[in-house]
């Protein structure tokens, strides 16, 4: 998406005269890219209309930075769609809140319930999980396993078939035990059917949740709006969590879910594991959606993990695009501390996940560790042969490492010319 949008903006910038036609062509191109990213058709069309109103053709003609003006307008419009105007209900530590999770089967509810509980537990809350999914065989076992792993109290039954009864019993029990975050996991069935929505309505009526969270799989594409709306019509959805953002989905469905539920996205799921869960933040999300990268997030990480006295030099090198093998090697321990390396790189502008395939981060990490700090530009065949012999490896291994380095170098080269903001003066654009 980022690529197509930059291309459209570039083409427009190259035009000598920016008239209505050139602007329209550009906006159509952007529209196409957004649709391909699963942003709902109506949202895209409204956005196009708004941008035309905002962008003043005379300003564009007067030689202002056209690309930047339009990019900023697209950015602002997307941010606006993701902001429903009021924050989600925020549970308070120490005061019992009931949070009910709804969503289709397979959307990631049970996994996300546990992540949500675990996230709060780490911050000193006393969460508890209630399994009110009596529809799917094995639902209780799954929740039990997750909860046990995270050491979170849970409630459920193998015998009882009435989800309302279990939900009420569980909530009552954990209220008595002074839990402050009582999380109710529900059934999803496999499609939107009347029986499911009726069940959600009943569980909600009986447990009186303070917050209903709609969980949506990011890969459902254009179906997002209708699905979110269907849930909103049966229960009082107050927040959204988008799952499987680590996959191929482009994330445009998040905009539809917010528009349909008039509720904000509060977290995103980025993997199957308990800690692959991130607080949702509008601006970095839109930056990434547009392929502009999340420089401020990346810089925050750098400031967080690289020792203070090494920061200026590293930042300088990064901005020169001179991230050499030696620096990479020297800084490797720090970079590892930044988290799974793929996640860190995904914050960079123009990053494509193909450069660092998921599941191969460990491999890449191990390979970089093996690399010595030699200058790869001088790496010719005989040198490779020598290194192979010297380290007791096959020449193929050395070549593989060089490929790995080239891939990384390609990523780092994107940093070239990057303006490095100082801590505290970071912007998404
Ligand atoms: P439920 O039917 O809505 O309760 O969905 P589950 O929690 O059982 O999840 C369905 C599948 O999606 C499971 O295999 C989960 O491991 C997987 N899953 C859930 N969230 C994520 C995520 O953020 N990323 C990935 N890759 N998989 C996820
Ligand atoms: Mg489930």
TrEMBL record:
Residues 264-277 form the SRP54-type proteins GTP-binding domain. GO terms for cellular component: cytosol; endoplasmic reticulum; signal recognition particle, endoplasmic reticulum targeting. GO terms for biological process: SRP-dependent cotranslational protein targeting to membrane, translocation. Pfam families: SRP54 (PF00448), SRP54_N (PF02881), SRP_SPB (PF02978). It catalyses: GTP + H2O = GDP + phosphate + H(+). Gene3D superfamilies: P-loop containing nucleotide triphosphate hydrolases (3.40.50.300), Signal recognition particle SRP54, nucleotide-binding domain (1.20.120.140), Signal recognition particle, SRP54 subunit, M-domain (1.10.260.30). Keywords: Cytoplasm, Endoplasmic reticulum, GTP-binding, Hydrolase, Nucleotide-binding, Ribonucleoprotein, RNA-binding, Signal recognition particle. Component of the signal recognition particle (SRP) complex, a ribonucleoprotein complex that mediates the cotranslational targeting of secretory and membrane proteins to the endoplasmic reticulum (ER). As part of the SRP complex, associates with the SRP receptor (SR) component SRPRA to target secretory proteins to the endoplasmic reticulum membrane. Binds to the signal sequence of presecretory proteins when they emerge from the ribosomes. Displays basal GTPase activity, and stimulates reciprocal GTPase activation of the SR subunit SRPRA. Belongs to the GTP-binding SRP family. SRP54 subfamily. This is Signal recognition particle 54 kDa protein. It comes from Trifolium subterraneum.
